[in-house]
Amino acid sequence: MAHLLGGMLFLLALMLRTMHASRDAVRSLVFIRDPYRHRQLRMLNIYWHFIDALWVALFGVFLFLY
Fold first, then answer.
1. Radius of gyration of the chain (CA)
2. Buried b / exposed e across 5-15, counting CB within 10 Å, b at 16+?
3. What pTM value is reported for the model?
4. Do residues 25 and 31 lie in contact, with contact meaning Cβ atoms separated by under 8 Å?
5. What is the three-state SS of 2-19?
6. Who contacts 30 (Cβ-Cβ below 8 Å, separation ≥6)?
7. Nearest to 11 by CA among 43, 34, 36
8. Which residues contact 54 (CB under 8 A, 6 or more apart)?
9. What region holds the Heme-copper oxidase subunit III family profile domain (predicted)?
10. What is the pLDDT of residues 2-61, one digit of tens each?
11. Other CB atoms closer than 10 Å to residue 54's CB: what's the count?
């Protein structure tokens, strides 16, 4: 549960930074082209796909066990 909460907090922080950057066209362009931000989005994408696969696997295991 702590991993899910941590991921949601990171997602919220990234969303707030993106919303703040989208108010100005120049800031938005710099934000999009920043390799650090791109890496953060890629890491978040990998993390959420891992969590999805983990929940599906756990659901399958518990479904077949009981």
1. 16
2. eeeeeeeeeee
3. 0.66
4. no
5. HHHHHHHHHHHHHHHHHH
6. 21
7. 43
8. none
9. 1-66
10. 877 888 898 888 888 888 888 888 887 887 788 888 888 888 889 889 988 999 999 999
11. 12
